[in-house]
Design a protein that fits this description.
heterodimer, A: 315 residues, B: mainly alpha, two-stranded antiparallel sheet
Chain lengths: 315, 346
């Protein structure tokens, strides 16, 4: 069985010039990921989280309508996470807040990934002056105290009503976080390209007359895909933390729209008397981040070509 | 080496200059301009706003404003009374000479306000980082030396959890436990104070200062402990498999000598670089911790400044912070080169 698979994948691979992940390697990656307990648990938790957040509208309560008669109810069967100062069901608000927080996270990845990858790819492949300028730029961006700049930007934008970037909407927050966090992708991709472009299959492609852009897109990036996916996963976690931090300080998503960060900010006044207001939103952030980090760790192990040797004790 | 330092200093100066343009443009191109923040703290009538604009030089083109902000205006005549005629000599010295202007809110010199807050932040952050490193290094080593053991697994699990704990939530939970729930059995007071650097109005007492330190330091340090112990573990694992350790063992050194004399020293070197890359994050830690625990430092100052859109304060902290980060990065590279004989800077 194993024998036939190998030859099938092997012969398929011979017919291609560009090294997409061969079938067998993809399968090995998946098998290693499945064997990483943290990553599997993380994936299950995150899947449950995403499904419940998507099902949030099924809740019998409205996330924004107040019901003062039921304010500050402790957790009960009716309100598993209690109610807030305006009598709104916390579980419903947390689920709707999760939609916002996860959306911001995904949008940040959608912004930073292409931005960072193209900057890194250009710097690494073109080299010379381009590399120098782009990398100085990246290094300077890395020295910024990003939270302080985020606060400045959102303090300015909070009062502004531009067409797309109205008053710290989800898009505004995602864009400003994205603009301050593409640098890890750029450095990662540049470093990978510096190694990969010296490899034989790239020389072969160049000898056959492939253009620079084609070599980068079709030959180099597919080989660099593993670390990029790992970094994207971790970036999702960072972005969620940054959004909640910003919203916690009052500069992110503005109430009444709930996000995990501004729910925590709201809890601050009353959390000594009504601790559930502070416990649950933070717990959601914590569970999400730890799941994402474990998934990232599992993916890193799964994509690492040296991992098997390490387990045997050779490296 | 001297030439390298000089080149890096010049590069840093260029970066700072570009940053100053960026920050200045951000604040001044924002709709409402810098006065939007001014109007928030005091009610300014439209005709008064015009006079105010002339007095503050905001009627000039942006490039002139930037140059004045950078280099001062004591070489030109300015319109002090706002009647439209420039009659008196300017007094501003510009940020290059340490004049960051005046806070919109308190009318105090920005540098004076920052100077009053800086020691409090340095005090808190130095203790936080010191404690974090003193805990993280040993547990990282223990973890690496006993790779895949139960101890290692619990330490790595802890460090995963610690990295996923946002400071602002950890702080709230610690306040809940040590301020709201746990009481001193003798006095019935809260076990630990909710905030501040010491009890206001009481005479100096070391116990009081230490009590006020516990929660902010714990909140700030946990994430760093998690992060550095994980890094220490992998750095130590890298070194453990190097050939020179096999040589050291072959010479007949004890395992203890091999680990602490040969492995640890080399495993610590990358920590210098990591630390310098992490300095920007110290600022964000300061914002959350100081805001949660009403700690009168730079983070709290920045947070309040942002709420009130007190732009001179924000720009002052950003520029001084950026300069500090650039200098410490350079310092870290120099230290790295002197620790690692394989590295030469040209």
């Amino acid at each position: 069985m194993e024998q036939t698979k190998t030859t099938a994948a092997g012969s398929k691979n011979h017919n291609r010039l560009h090294p997409r992940l061969p079938h067998r390697r993809r399968q090995r990656t998946w098998r290693r990921f499945r064997n990483h307990p943290g990553a599997v648990t993380g994936s299950i938790i995150l899947t449950v989280m995403i499904i419940s957040v998507l099902l949030a509208p099924l809740s019998p309560y409205d996330p924004e309508t107040s019901n003062v008669a039921e304010k500050f109810q402790p957790p009960s069967w009716q309100h598993p996470m209690g109610t807030d100062a305006l009598g709104r069901d916390m579980l419903t608000r947390i689920l709707f807040g999760g939609r916002i927080s996860l959306t911001v996270g995904l949008m940040v990845v959608a912004i930073t990934l292409p931005l960072g990858v193209s900057i890194g790819a250009a710097a690494g492949y073109l080299g010379g002056v381009v590399d120098n300028i782009l990398m100085r730029f990246t290094d300077s961006a890395l020295t910024l105290p990003s939270l302080l700049v985020l606060i400045l930007l959102s303090a300015i934008l909070r009062e502004v009503d531009l067409p797309v970037f109205s008053k710290n909407s989800v898009i505004t927050i995602a864009v400003i976080i994205g603009l301050l966090s593409w640098m890890t992708f750029a450095r990662l991709v540049r470093a990978m390209i510096l190694t990969l472009r010296e490899m034989d299959f790239v020389t072969a492609a160049r000898a056959l007359g492939a253009a620079d852009l084609r070599i980068i897109l079709k030959h180099i990036l597919p080989s660099a895909i593993g670390p990029i996916i790992v970094e994207a996963t971790l970036e999702l976690g960072y972005a969620i933390i940054e959004e909640s931090g910003l919203s916690f300080l009052g500069f992110g998503i503005q109430p009444p729209t709930p996000s995990w960060g501004n729910l925590l900010a709201n809890a601050q006044e009353n959390f000594v008397k009504y601790p559930w207001l502070a416990i649950f939103p933070g717990l959601m952030i914590f569970i999400t981040i730890i799941s994402v980090n474990y998934i990232g760790d599992g993916l890193r192990d799964a994509f690492d070509p040296f991992k098997v040797l390490e387990k045997v004790g050779k490296v | 080496m001297g030439q390298y330092i000089l080149r890096r200093l010049l590069q840093s100066a260029v970066i700072l200059l570009l940053l100053s343009i960026l920050f200045f443009a951000l604040v001044n191109l924002a709709p409402g301009g810098p006065l939007a923040g001014y109007g928030q703290s005091r009610h300014v009538q439209p005709e008064k706003a015009e006079i105010l604009k002339r007095q503050l030089g905001l009627d000039k083109p942006l490039t002139v404003q930037y140059i004045v902000w950078l280099m001062g205006n004591d070489w030109m005549k300015v319109d002090t009374n706002g009647d439209g005629v420039a009659e008196s000599q300017g007094t501003r010295q510009g940020i290059l000479r340490g004049d960051f202007g005046f806070s919109f809110r308190t009318r105090e010199a920005v540098l004076k306000v920052i100077g009053a807050r800086l020691p409090n932040t340095v005090y808190l952050m130095v203790i936080t980082l010191l404690i974090a490193i003193l805990i993280a290094i040993p547990i990282g080593i223990i973890s690496a030396v006993n790779q895949y053991s139960a101890v290692d697994i619990s330490i790595t699990t802890f460090s995963f959890a610690g990295q996923a704990l946002p400071e602002f939530w950890l702080g709230l939970i610690l306040l809940l436990i040590f301020y709201a729930w746990l009481k001193n059995p003798f006095t019935g007071e809260s076990l630990l104070p909710a905030g501040g650097i010491h009890t206001i109005g009481s005479a100096f007492s070391l116990v009081d200062w230490l009590k006020h330190l516990v929660l902010p330091v714990a909140t700030g340090a946990l994430g760093w402990i998690a992060w550095y112990s994980r890094f220490m573990r992998s750095s130590m694992l890298d070194v453990i498999h190097q050939d020179y350790l096999r040589t050291a063992r072959a010479k007949g050194l004890t395992e203890r000598q091999v680990l602490y004399k040969h492995a640890l020293r080399n495993a610590l070197i990358p920590l210098v670089t990591l630390f310098s890359l992490d300095i920007p994050y110290i600022f964000s830690g300061a914002v959350f911790v100081e805001m949660l625990f009403s700690w009168p430092g730079m983070g709290q100052l920045y947070y309040q400044g942002a709420l009130q859109r007190d732009y001179p304060i924000l720009l002052g902290i950003l520029m001084i912070g950026a300069a500090f980060i650039l200098l410490s990065n350079l310092l870290a590279d120099i230290i790295y080169a002197s620790l690692d004989p394989r590295i030469h800077y040209r």
